[in-house]
Amino acid sequence: MDSSPSSLSRRGFLSASGTLGAAAAVGRAQTTTTEPPAGDAPEPEWTVSGSNVEAYYPLATGDGTVYAVSVSDSNANDPRRLTVHAFGLADGNEKWTVSFPSLYNLFVEGGTVYAVATVGEGRTGRESAFVALDPKSGDERWRCPLGDHSYGVEFGGGNAYVSNQSEVTAIDLNAGEKAWEESFGMERHVYRLVHVGDTVYVGSSNDIEARSAKDGRKRWGAAERGLDGVRLTLADRERAYCESEGASLALDPADGSRLWSVATDGTVPRPVLHDGTLYRWGKKLSAIDVTEGSVRWRYDAKMVNGYEPIVGDGAVFSATRGAISAVDFDGTERWTFELPTGDDFYRFWGDVHDGIGYFLHGARLYALSADDGTLRWSFQADPSVTMATAAGDRIVVGTEGALYGFDRRRPFLAAVVDDTTDFLGSGVGLAFSGILVGTGAFAAYRRLNEDEDPPAVDPEPKLEYGRLERLAADEFTETYLVRKHTDDGPSVVREKRLTDPDLAETFRAAVERWADLSDRTGVVPVLDHGDEWIELPEYEGGSLADDGRPLAERIDALSEANAAVHRAHADGLVHGGLDPGTILVDGDGTADVSDWELAAALGERGDPSPYAPPEQVAGGEPDERTDVYRLGATAYFLVTGAAPADVSPGEIERAVRRADPTLPRAVDEVLSTALADDPTDRYESVVKFDDMLRWAAFRA
Question: What does the alpha-carbon distance between residue 271 and residue 310 come to, in Å, rounded to a whole number?
Answer without folding.
Answer: 9
